[in-house]
Amino acid sequence: MTLAANFFGSGTWLAIRNLGVFFGVVFYLATVFWIYKDARRRLEDPWLIGVAVMLGVIVPFLGVFVYMLFRPPEYLEDVRERELEIKAMEERLSKRDLHCPVCRSEVDLTFLVCPICTTKLKQACTNCKQPLEALWQVCPYCETPVEPATIALPSIEPPRRRRAR
Q1: Is the dihedral of CA 69, 75, 78, 82 positive or negative?
Q2: Alpha helices in the chain (DSSP H)
Q3: Is 2 a residue whose pLDDT tops 70?
Q4: Residues 6 or more apart in contact with residue 18 via CB below 8 angstroms
């Protein structure tokens, strides 16, 4: 007999073959388990999770790659977190916190003058005394035409440097 025939008939070959089969089965079961865990994190529908796992069971070793091609790109947790962040930003923007351009204190949308530094914020309608936005041509409350008046905001000049002699 040849050397190859002696090797394939020996107990060493049987041990190597059995270990290879064992590790192949363990790897196969690990891929199916990974598909199950990953699908649960990415999919809400239990039927889709089951289909993904069955793909891994029916098509060994290749099913993982097919699943990876068609799985959703994000985890459900990341999608929910992003939606909450967007919702929080929308709430923040809807509140439209206004600040005085001079002293940066919070002012209400209806304030004509900053209560802290007395900076004029808006002009009042000459007829109904409601606060007007700068670009309005007519008062939306009483339909009085708005006189073009400039709101003089005090300018804050940076301190000048003196030259050292």
Answers
A1: positive
A2: 3-8, 11-42, 46-58, 63-70, 76-95
A3: yes
A4: none
